Each structure stands twice: as C-alpha cells, then as structure tokens.
Amino acid sequence: MTADQVILLDEEGNRIGVHAKAHVHHRNTPLHLAFSCYVFDTNARLLLTRRALTKQTWPGVWTNSCCGHPLADEPIDDAVVRRLKDELGLAAVGPLELRLPRFRYRATMADGVVENEICPVFSATVDTQPTPNPAEVGEFLWLPWQDFAGSVLDGTRDVSPWCRLQVTELDGLGPDPLSWPRGHTADLPPAARLTL
Question: Are 13 and 118 in contact (CB under 8 A)?
Fold first, then answer.
C-alpha cells in the first residue's frame, strides 16, 4: 500500500479494503481509519495548527496539532510519529499516549464533501518548536489547554468539527492534559489493533 491510500472500515471497525486517498473524500465518503494527535509542551500548552489552504478538506481551518491515516501494514502509533515528523518537523516526541480509542465522527463541508472516520486520539509532549511543512500547516500557535478548551466549549473559538467533538471528550478526562488517563488498546477498532 502506498501513502496515498486509506484503510476502509465496516461499522465495527474491521478492515474491508483500501481506497486512494485523493479520491476517497466526496459526498459519500466511505468510513475509513484515521488518527488525531494533540501535542503539548511541558507547561501543558497545546500546539494548535491551521490547515494549509491547499488541503482537500477543511482548508485554512484551525484544528488540533496533527491528523493522518495509517498505512496498511503500519502500527497506528508509528503512523502518528511519522505524521508528526512529516507535518510539523517534530522528530523527537515524548511518550505517545492513546487517549480516546473509540472516537468516531462524520462531518460535512459547505460544498457537500464528507469526512467519515474512526479516528483514535493520541497525545504527545515535546520540548522543541515545530518546523511545519507549508503544504500541510499554514500557521501554528501554542495555547494553554484550559484556555483553548474553554473557548472551544463555549463556542468563541472556531475549530474543525472533529477537533470540537474531541475537545468535548478530552475535557472530560480532567483539567491537566499531562495527567490524562491512558486509553486501552483493546478499545481500538479491530483494524487499528491488528497493526499494533
């Protein structure tokens, strides 16, 4: 499988095939496997990113630190590390922690294009500054987690639809993201558990 394909899933999260990433997003986007990662510094500030204007879905929208899709034979945690390096130039990250193993969402852009993913959520800690790939990230900034979460939850900060939903769940894990409880790998969708 090449990097431009995504893993297709059934409703239970089992792998049922692959599809070209360039052609998977449309008005009837099939369910597929993805991930999100929230990167923090040692002061619990979140690395917030603005998607590049050339992105196919939600261009120019502020969102969590990093998103992506695992390759067919790639452990999902390896995929997160790969994308942190490719998108943000973060080659050294602290422990990668699974936070929301069951997160799933479906969202529709104004033009009718749909995103439809089972998307486990991870967090990581860094002590270096990112050097973003401009094809992926237009801007970035660091915000204290509680300030960021509060502004998303009260509707004063506009973010991607998946980020808004994830923040709602992550907020329930506690006020300090550096001490959130770990998710269980057994709760991941089967397609993600098979590659761990």
Answer: yes
> Cα–Cα distances in Å, from 191 out to 11, 13, 36, 137, 138?
11, 6, 16, 28, 31
Known catalytic membership, residue 67: yes
Q: What is the DSSP string of 66-134?
A: EEE---TTS-HHHHHHHHHHHHH-----S--EEEETT-EEEEE-TTS-EEEEE--EEEEE-SS-----T
pTM of the model: 0.94
pLDDT, position 60: 95
Name the more confident of 48 and 72: 48
Q: What is the per-residue pLDDT for 1?
A: 41
Contact criterion met (CB below 8 Å) for 69 and 33 = yes
What residue ranges define each of the domains in the chain, with the CATH number in brackets? 5-193 (3.90.79.10)
Instruction: Assess contact for 35 and 70: CB atoms under 8 A.
Output: yes
Please write the tens of the pLDDT for every residue from 139-157.
999 999 999 999 999 999 9
Q: Among the options 117, 119, 136, 163, which is catalytic?
A: 117
Q: Is 117 a catalytic residue?
A: yes
Which residue among the candidates 67, 97, 115, 163 is catalytic per the annotation?
Answer: 67
